[in-house]
Amino acid sequence: MASGTLSPSSDRETRDSVVIRFAGDSGDGMQVTGTQFTLETALAGNDLSTFPDFPAEIRAPAGTTFGVSAFQIHFGAVDVMTPGDAVDVLVAMNPAALKVDVKDLRIGGTVIVDTAAFNERNLAKAGYKTNPLDDNSLAPYQLLKFDITKLTADAVKPFGLSSREAHLCRNMWALGLLLWMYGRERAATTDWLKKKFAKKPEIAEANLAALNAGHAFGETAEMPEHLVGYVVPKAAVQPGLYRTVSGTEALAWGLVAGMRAAGLERLVFAGYPITPASALLHTLATLRSYGVVTFQAEDEIAAIGAALGAAYSGALGVTSSSGPGIALKTEMLGLAIATELPLVVIDSQRAGPSTGMPTKTEQSDLFQAVHGRNADAPLAVLAAATAVDCFDVAIEAVRLATRYMTPVIILSDGYLAHAAEPWRIPTEADLPRFPIAFRTDPDGFHPFLRDSKTLARPWVRPGTPGLEHRIGGLEKDYDTAHISYDPDNHARMTKARADKIAGIARDVPLQAVALGEDHGALAVVAWGSTFGPIHQAVRRARDEGHDVAHIHLRYVSPFPRNLGDLLKRYDRVLVPEMNNGQLVRLLRAEYLIPAEGLSKVTGKPFKVAEILEAIR
Amino acid sequence: MTVTTITDAQLAPKDYASDQEVRWCPGCGDYAILKAVQKACAELGVSRERTVFVSGIGCAARFPYYMSTYGFHTVHGRAPAIATGIKLANPELDVWVMTGDGDGLSIGGNHMLHVLRRNVDLQIVLFNNEIYGLTKGQYSPTSRRGTRSPSTPLGSVEYPVSACGFALGAGARFVARSIDTLQPHLVAMLKRAHAHRGASFVEILQNCVVFNDAVFENITGKEVAPDAQILLEHGRPLLFGKGKERGLRLRPGKLELEIVTLGENGISAADVLVHDETNRALAQLLAALEPPFPAAMGVLYCNPALSYEREVYAQGAATGGGSLDTLLRTDRTWQVEA
């Protein structure tokens, strides 16, 4: 990236990687600030990983600790896989943000505060008896105090904003300062502001002025000695065209890619608003010209019902929710299993049970996905490991759903839904293709005639002459598909449904070892969004000389056919999960191995150090 | 195998019957409804391959198995949701929802509300027998107060919902009512419902011979029918009785109907209200008629508008022509050189 406006590099210190957290009131625009910093950082060629952490309340009472919204970004010249354990720079826009987030700041780290926000009222709301800016409690850190409120107000004065509107530009001032600190451009943010406030040019101009003022402050102000600019060199990555992508975007685009790969004309996505899954509905709602029809249903049940109706009609039917909503969809999943129709169901897991902590991440729906239905009701379950991985997992879910005529659940989570990372953009020509064939031949047809290899029944589009048929949730005769209460037939159909799903294991790649040997003292086995911290921890442990490998599962039901043999080649198996021990129980039940669990149920992702400690 | 080509116009009612043995109780009103639907299909010449019957759970929900069209027997109360998905995926399909008073107004009441409000192009046929039949006779949301059933041995204390009143309240744009035994009328109502683009709601009073026999006898009994039913016809005066000697008019100075007799107290035909299918307020008054008023049969309300799925597709074709490569390259990208 060109760096014409930056301080001479000789003045700047070099850092391999940095963790910044922007924290403020939920109305302070911290998510926007973090997102824009992420974009500028990606454009500067760093690898990165982000973690937004916001409250469930849209606008919790201002200034309170439970209204604090934060956005963390870890970026660097090296392979960045997690949002970072410890924060190097904390931007705290008010006392509550400082109170909540300072505990994650490393000793010696930098904290930047808006002094104007540390008034008596805000201090009291945050529960401070004395002002932490004056009482020496921040001595372990480098404290940078600026009157960001006044500096912003001065910068936006020419645009005639109300004092409230001016106050809302503070985040852009802070962003400008941080962009200066790390030698970032402002072009993408400038474009974004102009687009975002196209209809309110004075607001756009004011925000730009605040952004530029923050940047200029770093460039020109007499800074305390310890505020210097930094250089974070570009990461060494594979050549190609890149962008940043969130897990939600990757899922949405992967579903479209999967529809194309299957040769289907239409994707019907039906959802009901629920945190943190709604963003997928929003993203897909903009993709009409790609063959996507979205439907905001009256409830979770109607959403999966409409998706299943669409599948019955020959479209790609998709629904999505979070744990409590998936619970409501359970009966309809049973119908999808009984009628053997393809369906993709995405579960963006959150902390529970019940409403739990809607904006906090967890991996506690594994049991629900694998077993959470009445009767013997098997289906396939896939788990996405990273934001980028969501794209491939979505395509694979469409492949399995259409090839095996089954619902497939994709397990994502609150972290993956919002996390963003750089992505080397694939071209459509390089993506897999698995065109499906609708049955059109009436000769010998009945709706549950099974493919000898996959055991899948034919998919027939209503509208096809000569293939008119009736299906439903009642048990049907194996040989005629007519309603049947015959005891032996039910046993045969139950087995056929189970065999069909079990057979998917023959059609998916053998389980690979993500890092390390395929045998040894310890395997750390995991699934889902814990990939980053576990991979980093295993890498560090191996650097320290530990005999440890990382195995990460995409296929959690059925398991890859070599998994049992693979796990038995390690002396110990450790299963870290953001739940109270679910995969570990599935592995123990399936393979009779003494796998050990490592649970974290705080609503926050694992830290590298936590995994590393367990390995040691 | 060669497919025998029969043009749909040549199909007889029996050609819409599947090869499955019908398994409703002998004497069940559902037989008459099945016959009426098959007759309506034949008279309309509907295409079997383009027609889908969707149902939930209950006696009425077995309906799709007995039709030679496409059929989907689904989950209790959820047929409207599944039918909505079918129409969104393929608006060209001709979709019927067959439901009952428990399926459509109790467990599926929410979906019924929204499918009518959205105006999805479906024929929704609600078999109202005022009882749960398949689960052996519990009172339903349309059961009258005092109904004694296994779950209300002392008599139900609940107020029933009016199916047509509910539909009108939900914003339905086609609401009709008929009776299982009123054959030519029922066929005519089904044909009207089929002709209507958008959600069309038809309530059929249906006799459950086992658990609620003769519950509609006060309306359908041969002796009482002329005075207990009023057959609605658009543009015609609201007259009933053996010799059409009685009529309905607005009670002067009040927003309510009253029964008048022609020739009494100076009442002439000109005093009687003329049925207007496009008047929702009148439809609500007619839907709510209870003894001693006659029960309204016919099209209570018909006021078409563009259907939901047509509106959705009018916003954008969903043809899938957009390039995936373009999609993935929207927003900021950057090139990393070798």
Describe the structure.
The complex is a heterodimer of chains A (616) and B (338). With 616 residues, chain A is α/β, with parallel strands linked by helices. Helices cover 35% and strands 21% of the residues of chain A. Chain A is built from 20 helices and 22 strands. Chain A has a seven-stranded mixed beta sheet with strand order 11-10-12-13-15-14-20, with helices on both faces. In chain A, strands 3-4-2-5-6-7 form a six-stranded mixed beta sheet, with helices on both faces. A four-stranded parallel beta sheet of chain A has the order 19-18-21-22, with helices on both faces. In chain A, strand 18, helix 17 and strand 19 form a beta-alpha-beta unit. The longest helix of chain A has 20 residues, at 201-220. The model of chain A is unreliable at 1-10 (pLDDT under 50). Chain B has 338 residues and is an alpha/beta fold. Chain B is 28% helix and 19% strand. Chain B has eleven helices and 14 strands. Chain B has helices at 29-44, 79-89, 101-107, 109-118, 163-169, 183-195, 217-220, 225-228, 280-287, 308-315, 324-328; strands at 51-55, 70-73, 94-100, 123-128, 131-132, 138-139, 174-179, 200-205, 229-231, 239-240, 246-250, 257-261, 295-302, 334-336. Chain B has an eight-stranded mixed beta sheet with strand order 2-1-3-4-8-7-13-9, with helices on both faces. In chain B, strands 10-11-12 form a three-stranded antiparallel beta sheet. A two-stranded antiparallel sheet of chain B has the order 5-6. In chain B, helix 1 packs across helix 6 (183-195) and helix 3 (101-107) crosses helix 4. The chains are: A alpha/beta (616), B alpha/beta (338). At the A-B interface, helix 1, strand 9, helix 9, strand 11 and helix 11 of A face strand 1, strand 2, helix 2, helix 4 and helix 11 of B.
